[in-house]
Amino acid sequence: MSTRVKSAMVVVMLALLINLPLLQTTYNRWEVERSGSDVSATLVDDEVVGEDTLAYFLSYRLPEDVDPGQSVWPVRVDQAAYDDAVAGGQVTVRVLEGDPSRAVADGQVVGRAGLVATLALDGALLAILGLVWRFGRYGRPELLRIEAVGDVTGGLPGGAIVESSDGLLTVRGRVVEITDDDVVLDTGDRRVVVVLDGRRVLVDLHECGQVPGRRLV
User: Fold this and answer.
1) 106 three-class SS
2) In angstroms, rounded to a whole number, what is the distance separating the alpha carbons of residues 166 and 94?
3) How far apart are CA 198 and CA 217, in angstroms?
4) N or C end: fewer C-beta atoms under 10 angstroms in the chain?
5) Burial letters 1-21, b for 16+ CB under 10 A, else e
């Protein structure tokens, strides 16, 4: 597996780890609103937090046939839903059948902390990718050119450039380009242009090949 493919896989995994919690929360809310049923839950506790900016919290208990465990569920709601719940002692909750943990209360407020944190991490990941692309692009080794002294034959998977004591190079890598005059091998860390000079190419495009050659200045 080339370094480029490994790097891409790492980026994809990081992106999934960063965004999965927010995506899961969003999907759960959508599924509850689409497939859930409205029930009246009993108000257990209420609280208002803050001074200049107030936050309203309720704690409720679902009916026993909906939640046999009779857990108490805290939730943040807007002021109107809070006032209605305190006045009536009930909280309207939309809940998925068989899963009381997946519920949305009337007027429930979705916290922005998770969204802000996710966007910040996504921005940091993009910044890192930009730096890697910039310095990887300009810091990449120069393209190696060699003159083949033998045919391009099949090789073991993976890439390598091995130099013998007499200066002869053996290059192994994936064939990414074939023309009448040369072949390009991708060793994973760099690409090597092999000037054929009449030598044969005995492998197909995208297969792994190897060839002996001498470095061209």
Assistant:
1) coil
2) 78
3) 19
4) C
5) eeeeeeeeeeeeebeeebeee
Q: What one-letter code names the amino acid at 66?
A: V
* Distance, CA of 37 to CA of 40 (rounded, Å): 10
Please tell me the distance from the alpha carbon of residue 203 to that of residue 210, in angstroms, as a whole number. 9
Q: What is d(CA 151, CA 25) in angstroms, rounded to the nearest whole number?
A: 58
Q: Residue 1 is encoded by which pair of tokens? A: 């597996």
Confidence of residue 112 (pLDDT cuts 50, 70, 90): low
Question: How far does CA 20 lie from the centroid of its chain?
Answer: 8
Sign for the pseudo-dihedral over CA of 114, 116, 119, 124: negative
Angstrom distance (rounded) from CA 61 to CA 100: 10
Torsion-angle region of residue 197: left (phi > 0), alpha (psi -120 to 50) or beta?
Answer: left
Residue-wise pLDDT for 177-187, tens only, equals 999 999 999 99
Phi, psi of 172 (to 5 degrees): -125, 130
Alpha-carbon radius of gyration of the chain: 31
Of 101, 37, 92, 42, the closest CA to residue 69 belongs to 101
Kindly write down the DSSP assignment for every residue of 144-187, as one continuous string.
Answer: EEEEESS-BEE--SS-EEEE-TTSEEEEEEEEEEE-SSEEEEE-
- Give the model's pLDDT for residue 73: 92
Report whether 185 contacts 211 (CB < 8 A). yes
Query: What is the residue whose two structure tokens read 């990081």?
Result: 14
Strand arrangement of the beta sheet that strand 55-61 belongs to: 72-77, 55-61, 37-49, 90-96, 99-105
What is the Cα–Cα distance from 87 to 92, expressed in whole angstroms? 13
Which pTM value belongs to this model? 0.47
